[in-house]
């Protein structure tokens, strides 16, 4: 991270001064990937323009531009960049061409290109097959095509572990969790040091509500994965969530605190669940402080739950006017959902609010009156 900060400082200084400075192609690619990941489009364009100025004919630079465009779903522009690449027999170029065709909904052309590579028996064939299997699995509505492709690829390369992972993942995507779990058991037995296999094994156990086994699998995945920080972040988040669901609230808090200290976290991922842990151990003030910066954010996974938890914590910490204000706003946006959620927290105990009847959302003042008369406000 320190090296990245130094590179960024050089880049920013160059942009501010307006003076020419040299960045090698690897540095340009690092900058492009960083700005893309952080959705900094202004500096992304500056880095791309600098790359065109310094390394206009470099294949790796062109591929990075192409991948950046595809990440932004601009497949037509990506295709134009690919048309300008003349290098042959390059695994990354070929895979990029296939991905671009798939993004343009030209599936048959993409498969024709794959068939050409299979018939040529290129030395990087397994890399291509793995990559295409992954792409198809991740494309919405393409699970049938993905399964068909993976079966054919496995017939060609039966010992390829990456294809076996994608085969298992395809069953998970189809909701065939039991089948996927059986397949994944064989994968972790075959490759006990594979973080991908253990991560999937933990995820599948969590879907089957085998929480203790899921936590154990995530621990193995964390031990096996030392390089992919994004994957480590995802594994640790899921482990912490499983600890929360299993009632190990202090352990879950420790796991979340470790994430906060060691990772560049997204508070939308962490704070709502960490707050839930503190609510479970009745530390409502800490929970309130965690929820305060995220409540109302439309990108939340479950905005209703976060709002409901915030109302609850506000009541428990004597912030009742704030709770009422937030509740009234929630009634306007999702009247039935917020009442349903709050009832799961056992907040409305009297008969009047025990089981909310269907109400017309056009009358939030009536719900507010009922709220004021219930013991959540008066207690």
Strand content: under 5%
The value of Rg in angstroms is 26 Å
Low confidence ranges = 348-368
By DSSP, the count of extended strands is: 0
What class do helices, strands and sheet pairing give? mainly alpha
| Mean pLDDT over the full residue set | 88
Secondary-structure element string: HHHHHHHHHHHHHHHHHHHHHHH
Largest sheet, described in full? none
Report the principal-axis shape: globular
Distance, first to last CA: 50 Å
Q: What percent of residues adopt helix (DSSP H or I)?
A: over 70%
Number of helices, counting only DSSP H or I runs of 4 residues or more: 23
Report on this structure.
The protein starts with a helix and ends with a helix. 75% of the residues lie in helices and 0% in strands. It has helices at residues 2-17, 25-37, 41-54, 59-71, 75-83, 91-103, 107-120, 125-138, 143-156, 161-173, 177-190, 195-207, 211-224, 229-245, 249-262, 267-280, 284-291, 303-316, 320-333, 335-344, 351-354, 364-373, 375-378. It is mainly α. The longest helix is centred in the middle third of the chain and has 17 residues, at 229-245. The radius of gyration is 26 Å and the shape is globular.
Summarize the structure in short.
This protein is mainly α and 379 residues long. The protein has helices at residues 2-17, 25-37, 41-54, 59-71, 75-83, 91-103, 107-120, 125-138, 143-156, 161-173, 177-190, 195-207, 211-224, 229-245, 249-262, 267-280, 284-291, 303-316, 320-333, 335-344, 351-354, 364-373, 375-378.
Descriptive keywords:
379 residues; mainly alpha; globular
